[in-house]
Structure formats: structure tokens, C-alpha cells
Specification:
The chain is of the alpha+beta class. Helices cover about 30% and strands about 15% of the residues. It has four helices and six strands; from the N terminus they run αβααβββββα. The chain is flat, with a radius of gyration of 17 Å. The chain starts with 10 loop residues before the first helix and ends with a helix.
Length: about 130
């Protein structure tokens, strides 16, 4: 994947990419923890740099829900959305809405050529909704 994206293959990049695939919607601290299990010497800055390079190369996607730190996922190349629990913060993928008015058709595009829509659904996950 790294070579196909014209990125040099380094141990930190492989470790970060592996962590993002293993822990969908993980925050940077969680990714650093996962990477350090394999590469204890890796710095915070190295992980941040890897995440930036992988995001720029579109090998990972960065999302930042309102009130949350940035999170990273390996599901790229499609127009999916997310549902987030207001109580515990759990995040799940949601496929794009389909039908006569899909989410990429804005009511007024202001002259923009739209290629992505970011929709976040908020609510309570199944576990939190039964405990509240």
C-alpha cells in the first residue's frame, strides 16, 4: 500500500498503518500505544508525521467529530458516514444514504464540485440506550 502511494516503506509507517487497520476510529494516543507495543522507541512526533503522510496519501482517513479529538480509520475511497454515541463515544460506520436525493447532492453547491459529504449521526448506542 505504501509503495503504491509512492511513500517510502519505513517501520513506523508500517506500524501506524497496521494500528489504524487494527483499531478503527482510534485516536492518536491509542495509535501511539499500539505502535509502541512493536516499536517502543518511536516518538509521538514520528507517529503524528506518519499519520499526516498516510492521510495525505489517502491511505487513512482523519475524522474529527464535534467535541472530540481527531480519529483515524482505514476505510477510505468511499463516501461513508459515522454514527456516534453521545454517552460512551462509540463510533460506527454508516454507508451513504441512497435514493432520489443522495447525500452528495447539495441543495445549493455554491459553485463547488462536491466529491465528499461528511455526515455524523448522533444518538445512543444499543448498550447505553438500555442502561439509561
Amino acid at each position: 500500500m505504501l509503495r503504491d502511494a509512492a511513500l517510502r516503506v519505513t517501520r513506523p509507517r508500517v506500524a501506524v498503518l497496521t494500528a489504524v487497520h487494527a483499531y478503527p476510529h482510534a485516536d492518536t494516543d491509542s495509535i501511539i500505544g499500539a505502535v509502541r507495543r512493536d516499536l517502543p522507541e518511536v516518538s509521538h512526533q514520528a507517529v503524528y508525521d506518519c499519520l499526516a503522510a498516510l492521510t495525505a496519501a489517502r491511505l487513512v482517513r482523519r475524522i474529527q467529530p464535534s467535541g472530540s479529538v481527531a480519529r483515524y480509520e482505514s476505510r477510505v475511497g468511499d463516501n461513508h458516514h459515522h454514527v456516534i454515541c453521545r454517552s460512551c463515544g462509540a463510533i460506527a460506520d454508516v454507508d451513504c444514504a441512497v435514493g432520489p436525493a443522495p447525500c452528495l447532492t447539495a441543495s445549493d453547491d455554491s459553485g463547488f464540485v462536491i466529491d465528499e459529504a461528511e455526515v455524523i449521526y448522533w444518538g445512543l448506542c444499543a448498550e447505553c440506550s438500555t442502561t439509561e
